[in-house]
Amino acid sequence: MSPAPAPTLAPTMPLSARLHRTRSFARAAILCERAWPGLRMPLAMGGTYLLAGLLRWPQRMPDWLHAAVEAAWLGTALWRAAASLRAVVPPTAAEVDRRIERASRLANQPLLALTDHPALPGAEAVWDAHVSRALGRIGPLRAGWPWPRLTLADRAGVGAMIAALALGVIAAGDHAPSRLAAALRPGWDDADVPLPQIQAWIDMPDYAPGSPIFLQNGTEPDAALQARPASVPDGAALHATLTGLAAKPHGAGADTGAIGIKGLDPTSWQVDAHLTQSGTMRLVARGRTLAQWPISVQPDLAPELHWGPHPGADPQGFRTNLPWTAKQSYGIAMLEAEIRHAGSTRVLRVPITLDGHPRDAHGMATPDLSADPWAGEQVSAVLHARSLSGRESRSTSVSFTLGARSFRDPLARALIDLRRRMALGEEDDPTASDEVAALLDAPKLADARPGAFTELSALATLLGSPDLTAAAADGPHDEAIGVLWYLALYLEDMRHASPEEATAALDIRAAQERVQSQIDRMRRLGSKGHTESEQAELGRRTQALREALQRRMDLLAQKAMRNGTALPDMGDAMNGPSDELQRMMRDMQSDAANGRSDDAMRKLQQMEDLSERMRNATPQDLANLAKQMQAQMQAQQQMQAVHDMIHRETGLLDHAQARLGAQTKAAKAQQTDQDEDQGGGNDLANMPTAELLRRLGLQPPADMQQQQPAPAQTSPQDGLNALDPDERQRQADQRLQDHAISHALTRAVQALSRETHDLTGKDAKKLAAAHDDMVKASRALMDSHDDDAQRQAQKAIKDLSEASKQMRQAMSQKSAGQPIFLPGMGMGQSSGHGSDHGDGDSRGAQSDDQDKSNRDPLGRHTGEGHDAQDTDTKLPDQQQRDRAREIQRELQRRDSDRTRSKDELDYLDRLLKSF
């Protein structure tokens, strides 16, 4: 067999270049042919090792023995190959030219003329002509392929080795590359080694609680994995346990966070990773990717804060309005307003109560900042929030005026002005002492207000003391500022009250401040603030506040009896302020003890408002109260009428649903009879899998529903026609009665809407919407369209419920700002243990409370007869059970048919595990 033709150099190239390159190829071919005898054994050893790798012989050895055998075997082969190559004799130039001439089939050895010389001198011209003619006859040059001289034994050995390697590759199949790689790399596993068992999940961080996300083992293609990455918040923790792995795994791929790996036993490992960046996390061990999980980490951004419209002093009172808007992806833990004054370095921090940990919320905080020295001053403020994850942010700064109390007493106004100047550093203590001393000379101060005179004298002494002035050199005297505030309040209360009543009001404010400071302390201490000692201290301060409130109510009651302005006994129509305050104090103490500091502060603020509005009634108050009670009674009657309408409309809805249920049942029975008559009802073998699952009462997967359409739904008219004549006539009679009731309710709602407009001066939009819904329901009943009647009745009930809710809110808002008059004759002096009546909102929700009381702990109704039916469950009969067994056997048959789609087989496997 002749060798294949070697690459040919085109004659268009210069002869010298062609000849140089051809000589290089020829020299390499000669070297290969001369090296072959010495390389036969090393190549045989290498081929033998590759064949052993395809048969997985080296991989079955321990790693150290695998490395030793590979090093010895392949090392020996390389050593012998190197020794053989060193013994190869390089070809001479003449041998190279002769090979080119033979391969190119050049006659008369023309390349010899390039190295020959004329024998006789003087014949150079003739020789040059001879050389030119010889070179001109040279055509394409070839070097020839290496063609070692193979003996019969060599050919048999090479053929056997190639055949063995080919059979090994065919036997290994797709695992051939991994087998060869594992054979050449001790410590690597090939694809035939089972992967370890991996259980992986992601735990949510503390600030974003949620159920763990369980991860697949990453055996699917990368494209499928990348299509559905696990979306987790920043700081989530990935945990994985690996069982059946002898080597320690390590992480690879994108840097998603710090990874910690520890061994549980020689073949078990635990992997913990803190996820901070998006990417694909891979676990690699022994040269293989054990698992890979694409992770999409959602950044934990700082809270987004904005001020609402019109912050500042409340035009209707002395509080300060702080409208706010806050948003954070995982919840806000703390929100406060940081208030600063241009003339001071102090920062006034005002906590803003939140309802839990909202993610997107807005509201209006109305703290009482009138006691602060900056009250009435222009200030700047920013919102400061901290998320559950600890991230903080601040809003832009706004300027507004703090709310301030209005003082009409001249001496009180002078004290407030002095207090403001001291707080802002505009007046030092000695000057303030002189000004207080000047106020002591006010006419009749010592006789008319002896308590105030004594306090002012002590304050003048306090401010004029050199020691105390030196101690307060860094700023205004806090104690003096506090005394000035309480003196101003005391003097203002003295304008309309006795000294005892003014003192009682002062005691209430002091007790409220002590309770507030204790709640703030418990909030700052966190979990340590709920110890028995802290709760006992809160209980003592709450009891002191309760006693102070009771003393003031006793004084007001005594004054009312003396002046003859005590209110008559109105029963439950008027809430006792003592009962209301007692309820608020119990709720406040419970909230603070259970860690709900924001709710406790909200209750305390309500108590402050209630105590500020508490006073004796005047004749004008009695007249206004009579009008208020009349309007309240009318509103309650309207609310009761709305509740009665809801009850009657619910009855109409029950009737429509019952008629629809009977129609649907009759239509299904008729369809089943038709299927059985046509032979399709029992043909389970040809029935779609989705339909089989529906007949078992199971919901098929979404993809199966798309592949296999659901049975056609029966129309309401079909159900009506499927009824027997007696049932159809009974429903027609009931529908006629319901139409009459619906028409009457429509007129009643229209009349109630007019009354509401006359009482409030506003249109009741929800009542108007309910009226329109009832009109449509009446038309549907007239046309025998029970499905439309059902929908319109549901809308009417919803609109009526919204109308009732709006009425309760309106009543609550009207009663919120009214003064609290102390009941006199009928109620007597409450000892603080009366019944809780609640506020206006609770009075208007008696039917709601009754509805809540008629429910069990799970929220279900606990009535009798029809009202107690909270489920439509019924036990199957024998025929239905037999039918279910037939469907089950058909599903088992389909599960054994492996020609079906993989998704359907997987679903059937999971479904049949429960049988």
Automatic annotation (TrEMBL):
Residues 662-672, 702-717 have a biased composition (Low complexity). Pfam families: DUF4175. Residues 661-686, 702-735, 802-903 are annotated as: Disordered. Residues 803-816 have a biased composition (Polar residues). It comes from the Bacteria. Signal peptide: none annotated. InterPro entries: CHP02302_TM. Residues 725-735, 849-903 have a biased composition (Basic and acidic residues). This is TIGR02302 family protein.
